[in-house]
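Thread amino acids onto this structure.
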């Protein structure tokens, strides 16, 4: 996507490229995956919103003020296979994982 920016009428048009880090992959969410999102989503999903969140808001009691639990931020967990394996070896660690591919999120929740 490009943004047009012309500060003055006679000034040349400047095209500013915005950074795009991903291409949304198509993927069908099955009935079972949709059900998993519906039932487990309220506990595990934090829909994107353009505002700051607090750790307790994300993790509940496990990240209350003063918590020393480490947090892993994963950007792009795909289908979540690697995340699930890593998380299983680190039970004392909280994971905040981001993914833009909705079918991947649904698959991860239903696994
Ligand atoms: C190459 S895959 C890696 C998946 C996983 N980490 C693994 O190792 O199997 C990259 C993933 O990052 C996601 N992704 C890319 N840019 C992203 C962004 N800005 N925010 C969240 N997810 C993103 C893509 O949708 C894709 O699922």
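Threaded sequence (111 positions):
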């Amino acid at each position: 996507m490009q943004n047009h920016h012309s500060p003055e009428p006679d000034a040349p048009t400047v095209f500013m490229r915005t950074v795009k880090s991903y291409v949304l992959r198509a993927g069908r969410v099955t009935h079972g995956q949709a059900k998993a999102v519906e039932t487990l989503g309220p506990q595990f999903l934090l829909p994107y919103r353009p505002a700051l969140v607090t750790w307790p808001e994300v993790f509940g009691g496990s990240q209350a003020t003063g918590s020393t639990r480490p947090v892993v931020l994963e950007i792009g967990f795909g289908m979540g296979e690697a995340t699930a394996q890593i998380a299983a070896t680190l039970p004392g660690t909280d994971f905040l994982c981001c993914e833009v591919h909705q079918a991947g999120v649904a698959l991860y929740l239903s696994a």
